Amino acid sequence: MQKFYTIYTFYTAKLKNWLYGGVMEALNASGVCRKYGKQEVLKDFSLEMAPGSFEALMGPSGSGKSTFLHLAAGLLSADAGEILVGGSDIVKMSDAAATKFRRRHIGVVFQSFNLLNEKTVRDNIVLPLRLDGAKVDEERLKSLVSALGIADILSKKPEELSGGERQRVAIARALIASPDVVLADEPTGDLDAKASKAICSLLRDLNGKEKSAILVVTHDPQVAATASKVHFLKDGKIAASYATEGDAEMVSKRYLETYRS
Ligand SMILES: Nc1ncnc2c1ncn2[C@@H]1O[C@H](COP(=O)(O)OP(=O)(O)OP(=O)(O)O)[C@@H](O)[C@H]1O
Ligand SMILES: [Mg+2]
Questions:
Q1: Which ligand sits closest to the CA of 68?
Q2: What is the pLDDT of residues 106-147, one digit of tens each?
Q3: Domain boundaries of the chain, sorted by first residue
Q4: How far is CA 188 from its chain centroid?
Q5: Is 3.10.450.350 the CATH number for 2-260?
Q6: Among the residues of 132-232, which ranges form H helices?
Q7: Closest C-alpha to ligand 1, atom 26
């Protein structure tokens, strides 16, 4: 029944899109609420992202950025609201349906990496494809790992890697299946400035070539400025959104303005 509902919402959204000639958002969150005990982390949170957009989400520690990413990835349940990913409401899916949907359509880079310690780097990267019974595109794997500078460590285990290397493995795993939406939680948090810049250009490149919509959570204005738009999360919702125009100084200025008041 759940499967039927997921297929039904997906195709009705596609049909509406075709009928009305509009662009179906890659991600459309509306009225999302999520509490932890009595703490209201997200309160009527809404965010829309067009297909192929590259946007950043910023906010102080504890403002709910990771909570939103987990909700949008179907890893956490919402108390209210909907989150449509390519037209399908991931919040309403069963755990099993969300897992399957995520493997095919969403690439997640977790703040804590979530790599499997007993598996090699290569096996960690191709895991979403293996779980989905899909073939590994060796060419894509090769170009991804060389762009990320991890081609030489494919046979190592995560515990033998530095924090920055682990982070790059987690990014490769999120991108391997060419997802429609990439949700990246501080993907450069453990990297130095040079590696961070390389990741930003890789994400930008991917965004241009494959039309994946990318939402990057970051504390770094330089990273946010790589995106076209930046959203500031405050009091459980998006308090302000700006075009970045690639200007990190402007992002810092807007950040201070938003959180000063
Ligand atoms: N499993 C949980 N149980 C209880 N409270 C939680 C849980 N996960 C998160 N929280 C609380 O929800 C709030 C938002 O957490 P979240 O991880 O989304 O913040 P964040 O914006 O990602 O912060 P950071 O920048 O530090 O990663 C925090 O106050 C946190 O303590
Ligand atoms: Mg977080």
A1: 1
A2: 999 998 889 999 999 999 999 999 999 999 999 999 999 998
A3: 2-260
A4: 13
A5: no
A6: 138-148, 163-175, 193-210, 221-226
A7: 61
